[in-house]
Design brief:
Layout (H helix, E strand, L loop, with lengths): L2 E4 L2 E8 L4 E5 L13 H5 L3 E5 L16 H14 L6 E5 L1 H12 L7 E4 L10 H17 L1 H12 L6 H12 L3 H13 L13 E6 L6 H11 L2 E5 L6 H4 L1 H12 L28
Parallel strand pairs: 3-4, 3-5, 5-6, 6-7, 7-8
Antiparallel strand pairs: 1-2, 2-4
Length: about 280
């Protein structure tokens, strides 16, 4: 199995396909396996690198604590070791923070950057953000992670045809060790790149679910500061790579190939008829 040592700990990754490098970085409590809906349309033209972030999936947690900066540095160490230079980097939620931090750490080395339902700052500067963070921590501590994960899953995927996704999230997130999960959540809340975003020169796309946790107005503001394109997916919630697979994949295909993005009218959450009939499965 592919493991790479980072600061004496094992980092797990998957690699598929050939061509320009695309790094796909997962969200909180997840792993690289959850990009299964994006792999088929991308693998024919790209060399895909799908890491499990330190402390997530099959990767060991760092000995000296977790921060967004150290997660980004760990991925750069991996990419250097496997000769995966000048990558496109795509990140979802937590993964978007890590992806942006990677681009800020090495401004000339990221080819194109995609942030999906992610922001350059998660500092708790508003009561809604405070509630999001500390309610989640309180739920995990009082109910346990498996029960809290079921509540998160129901919020992410409330519709009847989303039952496979709901079950998958509850199972995957609920299986995390509590310590690294909460440490990663706190690391995200403490991270802020707001003062550095004007230095970003990487072509950037922000993909935003209409009903994501954070409002579209905030994402529009950040897209202007990042000089990024913004694609809004109607009807999608936070889990856009899962509940709007066609829209996500169309945006990635267009942006990574330097083509115009799909028109807003076609960026829609998957319907009951078009949605995947089963959740992502383990990748080979």
């Amino acid at each position: 199995m592919p493991f790479h040592p980072v600061a004496g700990r094992r980092l797990f990754w998957r690699e598929l396909g050939q061509g320009p490098v695309v790094v796909l970085i997962h969200g909180l409590g997840s792993s690289g396996a959850d990009w299964a809906f994006q792999v088929p349309p991308l693998v024919e033209g790209y060399r895909l690198v799908l890491p499990d972030l330190p402390g997530s999936g099959q990767s060991e947690a760092p000995r000296n604590g977790i921060s967004i900066a150290t997660l980004a540095d760990a991925l750069w160490q991996l990419l250097d070791a496997i000769d995966a230079s000048n990558p496109h980097v795509v990140g979802f939620s937590l993964g978007g923070a890590v992806a942006l931090e990677m681009a800020l750490q090495r401004p000339t080395q990221v080819n194109r950057l995609v942030l999906i339902n992610s922001l350059p700052s998660y500092r708790v500067d508003h009561w809604k953000k405070w509630l999001e963070l500390y309610l989640q921590i309180a739920l995990v501590r009082t109910l346990g992670l498996p029960r809290a994960a079921k509540m998160v899953a129901a919020r992410l995927f409330p519709l009847p045809h989303q039952a496979p996704m709901r079950s998958r999230v509850a199972t995957v997130v609920g299986a995390n060790p509590v310590g690294p999960y909460l440490a990663t959540a706190r690391a995200l809340a403490e991270w802020c790149a707001a003062e550095r975003v004007e230095s970003l020169r990487t072509p950037t796309l922000m993909i935003a679910g209409e009903f994501d946790y954070t409002p579209l107005a905030e994402k529009r503001m950040w897209s202007q500061r990042l000089r990024a394109s913004l694609a809004v997916v109607s009807g999608s919630r936070h889990g856009t790579p899962f509940d709007a697979t066609a829209a996500t994949n169309a945006c990635l295909d267009a942006f990574l190939n330097n083509r115009p993005l799909p028109a807003d009218v076609v960026l829609l959450a998957d319907s009951a008829e078009s949605a995947p009939k089963q959740a992502p499965v383990q990748l080979d």
